[in-house]
Design a protein that fits this description.
173 residues; alpha+beta; 7-stranded mixed β-barrel
Length: 173
């Protein structure tokens, strides 16, 4: 079942509640991992999760590795998620942003549909990278669902403007 087919529950999740975060792509589960709720105001939910994949994933501009901690913020009404990434020693590596359909929150889980576009802001604020635009173009979303494709591109532009305008403190604060 994809994110759009699930029932969203605007009832806030309680801090400390364990949840399962599920990322789907092209109606198939891409990844699922455990997280703990930090806050939920009924629109925005923030969770903390350890790096869920085995081993290291080196993107060239950042390495995600065992011991990394992700503080992830999802919105029920926005087309993206923002994930602050910290190393095991607490140093901020940066922010990885997924362009997604709005999060579906219900039961013990959060589900988001990945729309291929991503953005990276380095921990020092110097590097802002738009990622996977080629995958987005190849996905066919613009032909299948032009309205969603437009929302996705606007979301990426908004994230880039925030990143270049001083980061995500106001958005996440």
């Amino acid at each position: 079942m994809d994110a759009s087919a699930q029932q969203d529950d605007a009832t806030p999740l309680s801090p400390g509640t364990p949840v399962s975060v599920r990322l789907v792509k092209a109606a198939r589960e891409k990844v699922r991992y455990p997280a703990d709720v930090l806050a939920d105001d009924g629109v925005r939910v923030t969770v903390r999760a350890d790096w869920a994949a085995p081993g290291v994933r080196d993107f060239g501009f950042v390495r995600f590795e065992p011991g990394d901690v992700f503080t992830e913020t999802y919105w029920r009404d926005r087309w993206y998620a923002v994930k602050e990434v910290r190393a095991a020693d607490g140093a901020v590596k940066g922010w990885y942003c997924d362009v997604t359909r709005p999060a579906v929150v219900g039961g013990a889980g959060i589900t988001v549909e990945d729309l291929d576009l991503d953005l990276w802001l380095s921990g020092d604020g110097r590097d802002v990278l738009r990622l996977d635009e080629d995958e987005f173009a190849a996905s066919g979303l613009a032909e299948r669902d032009p309205a969603a494709a437009g929302q996705a591109l606007r979301a990426l532009d908004e994230l880039e403007a925030l990143a270049r305008g001083g980061g995500f403190a106001a958005l996440l604060g």
